[in-house]
Structures are given as structure tokens and as C-alpha cells.
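Key idea: predict the complex, not the pieces.
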Amino acid sequence: MFNSRRDFLKASGMVVMAGAGGYLGTENFIYGQAAADITDATKAQDAKQRPTLVTIFLRGGADALNAFVPAGDPLYYQHRTRIALHGEAPTKGKGKGGDVGVVPIGKSNYWGINSKMASLLPLIEKGIVVPIMNVGSPNGTRSHFSAQDYMERGALGDSGISNGWLNRYLEATKKPYDAPLRGLSAQTLVPRALRGPYPVLAGNNKTEEMELFENLYSTKNMVNMNARDGANDTKGSRLDELSKGPKAALTADSTRDIIAQSGANAIERIKALEKAEQAENTADYPGGGLSGQLKTIAKVIKADVGLEVAQADYGGWDHHSGQGGAGGHHAQMLGHLSDCLVAFNQDLGSRMDRVMVLVMSEFGRTVQDNGAAGTDHGRAGFMIAMGNMLKGNNKVWGVDKWDMRDLDYGRFLPVHTDFRAVFAESLVRLFHFDPFQGKVFPDYQATPKNFLNFMKQQAEA
Amino acid sequence: MASIRGRFIIASAICLLASFSIIPSAITRADDDNNQPPPKHKKESDSLRNRILKVQAGIEADKNKPARSAEFAGPDLSDREKVVQALNRMSFGAAPGEVDAILEKGGWQVWAKEQLDPEKIDDSACDKLVVSRFPWVKIPIQDLQKDYGYERKPEKRKPESNSLHVQLPQCVLLRSAVSKRQFKEVMCDFWRNHFCVDQPRLNEEQTRSWTDADYEEQVIRKHVFGDFKEMLFASARHPAMLEYLDQKLSHKNSWNENYAREVMELHTLGADRGYGNADVQELSKVLTGWTYGPDFQFKFDANDHQPGPKHWLGNTVEEGYSGGEKALYMLATARATSEFISEKLVRYLVNDNPPPALVKRVAAVFRESKGNLPKVYWAILSSPEFMSRDNYRAKFKTPFQFTVSALRSTSAKLENEEDACNRLRRMGEPIYDCPDPTGYRDVAESWMDAGVLTTRWQFAWDLLRGDVKGITVPPEFLAGYKSLKSEEAELKMIEDLVAGDVGDRELTTLKAVAANGDFQRMASIILGSPSFQQR
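Result:
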């Protein structure tokens, strides 16, 4: 009856899709190790010990200079004539606009932080929050779409890479017994960074009547129809051929198998998420969109189900007009972001030993403000990292104080750190994973010498 | 209907056999397979992009792929299955009763030939509906701006100002669902992706939020049954494309390479087909001065044209508009173009992995006919591969194909498609909003992620309950089943919605629901089932 391995797998109720397309389940027998060999205890242990990288994407190009302010640099005030932030009340006069709204970082008489973000100062002081300036893309696009895309793909314009860097990490490290929720998008769509061959669930994907569809999409004991068509005859050759790899043609049967597997993956992940969400948040988050997403992620981390990468999205940073000064819209959003980070840190407590948050945006803004109390698309921007494994040293990273004199085209912050250097360091230090070996950044090569070295190496699990 | 019943019994029997027959030899064999060493990563000599594009372009398609021999082809498709295959590939899926109607009229070929001559099909009902809801389809571009263009100031807005970027996707969805010229609509979907332009958010500087509407009419729909060359020229000269790929920003002494690169890589030759960076630069210079005027008509601005001859692909291209015209003509008629386009078409109409032999034959027809598209289409549709069992129901519906087929198979009435278009966005395929100039990918791999099916389930469920705003499944659709016994209703619905082709789990699940007489739920289960996602 069973002339092929695939026939056997089907009949025994094991997952069937090894090889066919190569983009299916997590349970593929890729490294010659059958899931059945691993005990539940091993799986649970493995899931518990995984660190987690949480990315927060500020969509729209958030202004770096309104978050981390070179308040000790007169050039800053020459460029920002309307919405600059001052340490003390500015002398009024032409070109001296703006208002008080910046607090010094550490002992720096150069760098300050937007006073709406002051809640981060104690964490910066402890070295577990690291502001990174002048980080960006070697590609100078000023299109939101392209810049977000390059950043989330971890690859630049012409590389032809369509999936995300976080997904490539998951795919490169998958095991036959992976936990269902290694990757999670906290909003309704799977963002590009998490898209790709490895199945990742977007939160909020619950479907009414899921039980009905669950019956349809379980792959257990799945036997294909088309019996009358000869597809299920005992030759077995069709199925064998499919298992040879992605180049094999898709037939009706293999297509249906793939679809069923994909649906089963979704249901498995939705259920795992529902279970994980029963954990409780133990900090006061501010109200609003980002906090909801971070609360979900915090719960899933507390549930110890093996979450490794999660992304939250926070949109609305494209302040061409109405960015405003110390009390402006942009400052309010920065305040919300900071309060969310503080709450997340408090919520997770000592778990932050193994959790790192990385805040990023596709580009920064023009150094000059425009006539509409806003800023236009720029080049380098900022990131914020948070986690107990950081060695922050109470300072701003990635830039020295003279960079205001070295603007691109006289208008943009220059890029000193390729965003992929930060991504790569995160993967190396957090997961002990070599992204260059694993081809996570196909058009980028680096060594630890290129890293900012803002993280301690995590102890091996 | 008896045949479906028969299939169910066969399936159950196989299921039983399967669960009892795990024999030692099979286990041994499986273990052997599992003990294979892990596959090693091959050294990448080429960039990933090049490799992907090469595979897309078919250059490497022959390698590593065993030729499928006839012995695996399975039995011929029955006449009925041939109709189902034709409807799956040449339309957005069967409407209720359509399979029977085509069989009565003489089978799939009769229907297919009608579809290849769309002007002879009476589609006045659809045309009337479209014109009444979307009068702009008849308005020339120079007049479109007046009533439909972008207007920043609220006090200057007319009732239809700033509305086309919402109306155009609706219009595309409506036509795809209700037109009788189904093959035309299916091919428009193909070419819309091939000559992809997107709609930016409303913005003064970017006019595509309303010029795309004219692009749909004058570039895509006008030439879908014409010559490839004409469609290429129409796209190259249209303000939407001139803006989308930055051609209008390409000036004398500061040319922009975007369009020159993509017209070779994406629209004609395919990636890495014998041209280099220097060729991209030279073609950029050739095309400087191609722009449009304030009336949104194409304009060659001789003052903004890079003077002197250019050396491109081994040719000397003369200065002036005629140089650009000749360059595009060369691209349209190049051998690589015939192969690249044929391969994409075969992928779309036949299989994610296009049979190389068929691609070769189709490319020859492309060259002989000088890119006459109906002849190229027919070369594919009349091939044995098109009707082979290997390729029967072997494609995974894109979100757009899924949505339109769900509307067609339930005879849904469309009054407003905005909600449906938003749902398409959530499924990852918003109309006229592809993030990349490549257009949406046409392989199952691109669409299969863990969350993708849940949005389809929700759509299926909401559609049947009337919760997709502006769209109603008429009571007649379900009434037809209510008069039947539960078992008969189940079988008929399976026959109607997925041509009788379901898996055993679907049958079991449906049975339970059918017993309760809940036809609404039955239909939504079928629309959400694996079988309905196939075409």
C-alpha cells in the first residue's frame, strides 16, 4: 500500500508536507530528525530558554532630532528656527523659536532628551536603554514605502529579496519540533519583517466559527480525493516526485495538501496565542494602540511558549506639518512610546534579562524645520534598544558631538551605522546566531568589528 | 450526483485501509529517508535577486527539474472536467449552472473560442452597470481632471474630486465578477500586474490617484486582445507610467534610470538577459524628454532630450523621439521578450512551474505572430498541457481570484465594493496598490502564510451572512437547496461550488451541517475549504 515515504507519513497521521514547496510547516524533517524523537520535556525546556527580540516600527519616518536633541550645539538652533527644543527659556527674536522641552542625558552638555521622554532617563542611566543616533540605510531613498521595505527586508533596493529579515532568522533556525509561536505580529497584518516562508501569525486573526474550519484543515489522516482520477493509485511516483523539492510541479493533490497545511498552521498558532494570552500584565500601560500590542507580546513572553521574534507597529510619524515643539503632536507620541517602554520593562521584570526591544523608523527628517512647524523626509534616524543585556553607559550611541557639521546635502543627518549592523548584533548577541552564515542579510557582510557593541553577549541557553 | 456519492465511499474505504496498513517496509523506508544528511547550502555565485528572476524568466527552469513523463499524467480529463479547467483558468470560476450550460453548448472549446473573441459576446448588462456607476470610464483623460482630479482645498472640491483611487478598485472588482467576457477580465488581471502601476495616497504632486483610471482603460483594457507591442507603447507613453517609474523626472544631463531599467527587466527582456548597467544608462538617455503635458497627453520635450547618438545593446540609437520609439520596438520584438512573456503567461494559465517545452512553443508563436496576443493565448489554451491532469486544479487562487470566484459562485449582487476591496487589502492584494513594480507574484508560495487563510474564512462566512457591506448573496441562491433533502443538497452544493471535487474531511464536516439544514453555513464552509482555494 505504501510505496513512498509520503504515503506512509500521510497514513500515519504525521505531517505530510516535507519538501513540497519547502515553505510549509515547521515540522519538516529537514535535518533528518523526526519530531517523534524529541520528548515533550525537551521541547518545553527549549521553548522556555529562548530569548526574545521585540521590534517596534515607527512608521512614517520619525524625527530623530526631536527625540534626542543636540541641545549643546548652536548649529541645531540655526537649523531649527521654529520648533527647536531648549534647555532653558530661549531669548526671543528672529530665528529663535521653540520652547523649553529638553533634559540632559547623563553628564552630557551636548545631548538631551525630549522632556516628554524623561521617563526613560532612569533606564538610560542604568544602561538598559540605549539611544542610537545616525543609524540608517546606505540607500538614500526618501520614499516611505521603499525605506520601510528595505529596512524590514534587511536588504536594499535591488536585492530582489521579498521576505523579511526576522522571518529569515526563524527559517534558518527552525527545528523539527518548533513551538507554534516563535514569531508573532502584534497587529492585524504580518509586517514585511516577519513575512516569508516561516509561518508567523498576526494577532487578531481569530475567525468566528473556527471550529468548523479546524475540522477542514486538520492534516491528520488526510486522504486525498481524486481517487477515481488515478492520483491515488499505488504507483506512488507522483508523490515521490513532489517530495524532491520546490521545483516539482504543483498538482491538484499537492496544492490541496499545501493549503490544508497552511490552514492547520494558522489554527495551531491561533490556539497557542489564545492560551498564551491568559497570562496577565502586571504594569500600568498608558492607553492607546501601541500599548495594546505590547501588552499582548508581554503576555506571550510570560506564557513561556517559545516566542523569539515579535513586532509591534506604531504609525503616524510623518510630521510634514504640525510636528510642534515641546507640547506638540510629535512630542506627545514620543511620550507615549516612552511610557509604553517603561511599562513593558516593568511588566516583564527580570525576564528583561532575555528580552530586547528595538525601536526603529524608516528614516529621520530634515534637520531644518519647514514653514508648517514640521520636518520633511531625511536620511539617518534613530533607534532605541531596551533590555538588561545592554551596556548603555548613560550616553547616546552611534555618533559624536560634531556631526551636526557634517550633514548630507546640508539637510540630512548622515548615516554612520548601517541599520543591518544593529540587526546583526542583535541576532548574534541575543540568539548566538550567525546571520552571515545563515544568509539573513544576503547583500550585507559584517564582523563584530562593525558592530556598535551596545550589547553583552547572552549566556548560551 | 451519483458519482460524488461514489467518490465519498471510495474515499472512506481508502481512509480505512490507510489506517490499518502501516507495514514495516514502509517504516524502514521512511527512516532511511530521514537519515539522509541535511542538504548543504549551495554556494551562491549570483545574487539572490538574479537567481529568482532567472528562475522566473525560465532561464534555469530546465535545470534540476525532471521532465514529467507521460506515465505520471494520469487519465485524461473528462469532458466535464475540461469545462471546469477552462472555467478555472479562463474565468474567475464558474457561476451556478455554468458548467452544465457549457456542456450543453458543445463543450469547453466552443466556449473558449467565444471568449477569445470578446467583442462578439453580448455584455451590455455589465457595460451599462459599469457606465452608470462609474461614468468616468468613458471620459478622456484631459477632461478627467476637471471633475475627478485631486483637489487639496475642500472649498474647491467637486462631488467626485479625490474619489477615483477608491472607485477604480471597485470598478475592477465589479467587472471581474459580472462581465460575461471572463477571459478578457482574467487577462486584464495578468497585464495589470505585468505593467504594474500603483495608486499613491492622495497627493498634489502624484497624479496617479486619478490617472490610473485612464491607464486601466487605455493601456490595459484596450490592448488585452491586441498586440504586445501596442500595449508596451501605450504604457510607456501614459502619464501614470511616466510618473510611476520616474520617467518624467528623467532630464537632459540628469537622467533617471528607473523606467529604463524596469522596461527591460520587468516589461520585456526579463532580468539579466544580455544587458548591463551601461545599457540601462544608455536607454535612460534615449528616453529623456519622454514626459506629458498639462493636458496629460504624452509629450516629447526635445529641449530636455539628451543630445547625440547612444550605444545600446550593440546598436547605435539616433537622437530624438524616433530613437526611443525604435528602442521600444526592438525590446518588444526581441527573442528574450517572447520567452519571458510566454513563460509568465504559461505560469498564469497552466502551472506555477511552467512546462519548458510548452513555453518554447508559445514563444515561437509569439515571434511568428509578432506578439499578437490572442494567438499567443490560444497557443497555450489549445496545448495538451493546458488540459492535462497534472495541471488540473493545480493553482492556488490569489486573494483577488478567491474573492471574485466567491462572488461569482454565489451569484452575489454588487452595489458597493469598498468593503470587499478593503478585505482584499487585508488578504494582501489591494487592487492597483501593489507595493512593487513587479506586480503581484503569481505562485502559491507567495500567498501561503499562516494567517492568509483566516481572512478568507472570515470573508466566506461574512459573505453568506450578508456582512460584506454592499454585497448580497440573493435569497434564490440558497433557496435552490432548501427544497432538497439534506444529502442531495450537500452533493449539489459541492457540485456547484467546487465542481464536485472535495476531500473527505470536507464531506464529513459538511454532512454534520447539512443534517441541520444550515445551508448558509454549508456554503461558507465550502468557500473556506482547501478545495475552493484551488483553481
